[in-house]
From TrEMBL:
Lineage, broadest ranks: Bacteria, Bacillati, Actinomycetota, Actinomycetes, Pseudonocardiales
PANTHER family with a match to the protein in the record: PROTEASE FAMILY M14 CARBOXYPEPTIDASE A,B, SLL0236 PROTEIN
Name of the protein in question: Peptidase M28
Domain Peptidase M14: 79-370
UniProt similarity note: Belongs to the peptidase M14 family.
Location of region: Disordered: 1-64
Organism: Amycolatopsis azurea DSM 43854
Keyword hit for Methyltransferase: no
Keywords associated with the record: Hydrolase, Metalloprotease, Protease, Zinc
Amino acid sequence: MLSLSAVAAPAYAAPPPTTPHRDPGNGPERNDVAATDPPVSAARAASGENVAGDHSGYPRKTKLRVYPENPADKSIKLGLAPYHALAPKLNALQARSDRISVEVAGQSGLGRDLYLVTVTAPESPFETRRQDAWRSLIENDPARAARDPFLRHGYKAPVWINNNIHGNEWEGTDGALRVIERLVTSNDPRTADLLKRNRFYFNVTANPDGRVAGTRQTSQGFDPNRDFVTASQPEVRAMRGIAIGKQPLMMLDEHGYVENTLIEPTTPPHGQNYDFDLYIKHGYANGLGMEQAVKALGRPETAKPEIPFRDYEPGSWDGWAPIYTAQYAMYHGAVSFTIEIPMRVNNAEYETQPVAELQRRSVINTEVVEATIGSTLDYVDRNRGELIANQIEMFRRGTAGEAQREIPDGFVPGFGPEDRYRTEFPRAYVIPAGADQRSAVAASRLVDHLVANDVRVRQADRPFSLSGRRYPAGSYLVDMHQPKRGLANVMLERGSDISAKVPVMYDISGWSHRLLWGASVDIVTHGRLDVRTHDVVAASPTGGVDAAPGRDLALKLVDGKDVSAVNDLLNRGLALGRADDGTIIVPASARPAAAEVADRYGVRFTEARGTAAPLSRKTIAGAVGPDELKALRDMGFEVRPVSAAVLNAGFDWSRIDLLFVSSGLRYTDLTPAAKDALRAFLARGGVITRGATGARFNTDAGLLEARPVAGWEDGNGVVSVTGGTGPVGGGALPDSFVYGPFWFTDLGPSVQVEQRYASGNPLVAGHWRTRDDGTGGPLEAAGQAAVVSGTSALGGRAVLFGTEPLFRDHPKGLYSQVAKAIFWATSK
């Protein structure tokens, strides 16, 4: 039977600090594997964000569709549940018990259902409406919620268990199924009482496509546990919906594999926007409880679980970035954990270990999952009142605009100065409308994204003034006196340079929707907000045609949506032009089509002036990462994935206009025949390169005279740049993004600098240090060429990026810079 007994946390002597295993795909190493298309076309997935909208009571019986048996499912070899077995299992449990409900929270990229299982005592529709009203009260009127004795005694504590977000970290699903079955079939009175006081939500497999294929990533090649502030993947949008709709007090994200088992809380740095005092007390206590539950399994492989907060050096397993499930969930009021089960069964081990050994390891891993879940459910039940008050207090502080609390040393054992990260929240952010807005479509996208993440946005009904600036009606206001101010701020702030605070970081340390999404956003530091506004559910339309009838139209490429509109028109066979400054000219005869795409993409056409050269649709051969493949296709480019292997097998260059090289293609790996075909293309076609792979390709193929200099390989974050007047750098944003930054020196006379790293220290936010030998740091990069262009020695045009303008589908305000590079490099 499921153990839910309380476990006291004993005194513990910390082992020597260690560094956890770093899984592939986190950073520069992604340059080695080019993106490929999935085996079948991806289905457009449901967002999953309305899973909390049903008030019909519990249980909610859903007859799940059953998928055909798939003997190729990679979980079968491990003795684990294949995806096709999940729906029959859950259907049978629903038929057997009134404690279980199953909803389809969304679909994967390949169209597989995402199962959200709710385990709780039966509820009448009235009881469910009351629970939903209390959940809403906690967020929307936390001061009143804190005074409500009925809520305090009657609110069911919501707990979210997320599993298998990395597809080849399988056992979270199987451990969760064990817990589910025991909870819904047990005759133990204590289990019945437990389910009267709590609701337990299980996302059975967060990445079913990866589970079946045995891959860490989704079917689009994305790591979903790096995607939460961007939510480019349907699986992540479904999880976002669970976090918002269910508002868990506590959540676990079950991963693998770290020897001995890893249980958060994390090392420093801790996100500066958290009310960390409301997290760490229960985070550490429940972590210790899970540790004891894992040790109690009595297996040598689980005898020494690791808690990064206690056992690791700062930065090696941090809580800084909101890209991870657990760190993102904290902004929605959860005390959250990443759990790394111990016995590796994926990657090389999956192929080389005997089946019996793999299955032995999977049994242990499944037991660890079961132990961490059982211990957590028990902890929540014992501390239910305090955890409810905890979440109420977080939302209350945000609504009241109170300062974060100073946390004293020893607040929990081991808490000290290295753990102390705080910020001062501004009074508001303003996203101006009209002439003050660089890109209206970017502003609209940002507003819709904020709203989708449960950030409150309001729109001005009339003109107003704040901090000495005048704003037109229709401008957007993000009042930082709101429950989830931490999430609002982590998206809209610039971030922090934490290079000097920790020696290493596990993954990226900088991001900013304000600086990298292309919208103009102003900061109001203090003062009253005497602005007449209304709540925003969706941003106002931004598209239109601002030109007299019968006149040619112009569209400046300042956003990726502008590029999508252009490619849409080109794909209709319309004759467009491109002016010398990169502006796209649309003939007056195409006005109806222009009006249609203006409405579809939110772009605005103005009246054209001057002449333009003909512009045709572009087809790209892309040796690129999955993030770049998605971004290019989202802009409407036709991209044919390539790699060294594809080119060596024989590739038809006749319909290709441009080669984009950033991953999986080394010139020296090509056969003589493939090199000859490539060089023939390079004499006429364009080239764009990015990063280490691109820089090496430029040198080996003898394209532009430019010596690449590699910055610190793990250096990453938002950087200040200065643009030139060239075809790529002109009009670009003043900030860019880097991961493993490059710059270019010893430029030949025909090479033009399109963009430079800013003088001084170009790092705005992130983690970028010098190497031990003193090289590769941001001060060395200052003033150096970050993006260059020119005509190659072979005859075609080339653009070299030392920055990351398409990284993980995040810096959307940089996409148009890449598109301008494509159009310039393919023009003559």
